[in-house]
Structures are given as C-alpha cells and as structure tokens.
Amino acid sequence: MRMRRKRNLEPRLEACSDILAARGVPMKDLKKAAEEYRALFDYSELFGNGNAVRLEIGCGNGGFVLEAARREPDINFLAVEIISNVIVTAMERIKKEDVKNVRFLNVPAEVLPCFIPEKSVERIYLNFSTPLPGSTHARQRLTSPRFLVIYRELLKEGGTIVQKTDSEDFFDYSIEQFLLNGFAVEEVTRDLHNSDAAKDNIVTEYERQFAGQGKPIFRLVARLNRMEGSE
Ligand SMILES: C[S@@+](CC[C@H](N)C(=O)[O-])C[C@H]1O[C@@H](n2cnc3c(N)ncnc32)[C@H](O)[C@@H]1O
Fold first, then answer.
1. Which of 39, 123, 134, 223 has a CA positioned 20 to 30 A from the CA of residue 17?
2. For residue 15, is it within any domain?
3. Is the distance from the beta carbon of residue 130 to the nearest atom of ligand 1 less than 6 Å?
4. Distance between CA 68 and CA 206 in Å, rounded?
5. Hey, whose CA ends up nearest to atom 5 of ligand 1?
C-alpha cells in the first residue's frame, strides 16, 4: 500500500534541519555520486565530540535509534532512511525527546561513502531490512555483495553488523553472503525473543508486528575479518 505524503512535509523536514546531516543525493551511479557529492563528515563538528559512531540503515520511524541513543548517550548514532515521509517521524521523535546523540541521513544506503569516512564506524544495525524474495530485486537487498563492499569500507577493523529479521530465507542468504564477503558470523539465534539476548534487545516497530504474529525473530552478528598483514 502506498503511503500518503505527510502534510507539510517540507516545512517539517526543514524544522529538523539541525539533525539532518545529508539529504537527497542521486544514486544512479554510485561511483559518479561519490566523486561529485563527496562531503565527508567531520564527526567532531557533527556531534560536538569524538565518541564512537554507529550506523542504522533503514531506520523507519526511529523507535530503535531513539532507545539505543538513550541507553548509550556516549555513542554517536547515524540513522539512514531513504523515504523522507518516514524519516521525518524519526527526526521529530528525537527532537521531542531532546536526544542529542543522533543525526540523520535521508539518502539511499548506496551513497553512504559520499558522507561517511572510511573505517570510521564501529557497528552497523540492519533491523528488518526488506527481504526482497526472488532474484529480480536481489541487488537491492541490504546484505547483497554490493552493500557488503560498502560496509567493509565504512567499518573499522573488527567492526560489526548486527542484523535482525523475521525472514528465514533472507537470514540464510545473509549468512552466506557475509561468509563469502570477508565477515565472520557470530551469535546466531533463530529465536531471539526466547534466547539470552532477549533481555538487552530493543524491539523495533516491525519487530513488534512480526513477533505479535507469532513469528520467530532471527539475529546475528557479522564481524569484519582482519585484513591479511594487519597487526
Ligand atoms: C521494513 S522497514 C524496517 C524499519 C525499521 N528498521 C524497523 O525495524 O521497524 C525497512 C526500511 O528500510 C528503508 N530502506 C530500504 N532500502 C533502503 C536503502 N537502500 N537505503 C536506505 N533506506 C532503505 C525503507 O524505506 C524502510 O523504511
């Protein structure tokens, strides 16, 4: 179902411009975009401190990043969401709650290297990314090889990706892709809500829906392998 454009979307986005760090880069050709629009963040300017940085891709309405940022005020969070109509809600919640350690990017994940310096992120969260079953849209899956190349570039040595999903097929696909593309896969659970990890889990909006339908939640941690020759 197509979502109706929110009333006063542009003024509402504008009212959040102090926490909106990037918006609307064309994504036809990543290489071209990276050359033309490269505007790498200076984190001390963006957050006013030198704290570690984590990234959520596909933040939706922002429930996860809001709670994560509250729990860990000494971590800086970047939240990425392609749809303006959706990210505006996330930004308004962060402002309303006066949470200081979150900035937003209203761009497709494909262009993140235009903004995020290499090896500057300690963790990436992929919460309930669209599974896109079948082969037609496989390239759009956020754990397809073309995205894993990007994450490898952005993550620090030993950095991690934490993935949650309700789709077993997407989960198995992701494990396969992580292993083929320079990551070790750890902490795999196929029933998060009935596991030891449940007590620290932050339930996202989609997760609440899926769990409410009785679906098990899958979770893993993918750790960037050390490069040969590094210390
Ligand atoms: C299924 S929703 C999950 C939302 C939220 N993470 C949750 O768990 O409730 C996936 C979100 O990812 C966003 N998304 C999908 N592909 C994206 C991309 N390439 N770049 C940025 N955001 C993307 C979608 O617009 C959507 O809001």
1. 123
2. no
3. yes
4. 16
5. 60
Cα 57 to middle of ligand 1, angstroms: 7
Nearest residue by C-alpha to atom 12 in ligand 1: 58
**Residue 142: CB atoms within 10 Å:** 22
CA separation (Å) from 188 to 43, 59, 172, 196, 211? Answer: 32, 22, 11, 12, 18
Q: Classify residue 181: in a domain, yes or no.
A: yes
Is 80's C-beta closer than 6 angstroms to any atom of ligand 1? yes
Written as tens digits, the pLDDT of the chain (231 aa) is 567 888 899 999 999 999 999 997 666 666 666 666 778 999 999 999 999 999 999 999 999 999 999 999 999 999 999 999 999 999 999 999 999 999 999 999 999 998 999 999 999 999 999 999 988 899 999 999 999 999 999 999 999 999 999 999 999 999 999 999 999 999 999 999 999 999 999 999 999 999 999 999 999 999 999 766 555
Structure tokens, 19: 């926490």
**Separation of CA 83 and ligand 1 centre (Å):** 8
Q: What is the DSSP string of 22-58?
A: EE----S-HHHHHHHS-----HHHHHSS---EEEEES
Query: In total, how many domains does the chain have?
Result: 1
The domain of 99 spans: 30-224
Whether the pTM exceeds 0.85: the reply is: yes
Any domain includes 215: yes
Please tell me the distance between residue 231's alpha carbon and the centre of ligand 1 in angstroms: 36
Q: Is residue 104 part of a domain?
A: yes
Amino acid identity of residue 7, one-letter, is R
Q: Cα(96) to centroid of ligand 1, in Å? A: 22
Here the tokens at position 199 are: 């007590």
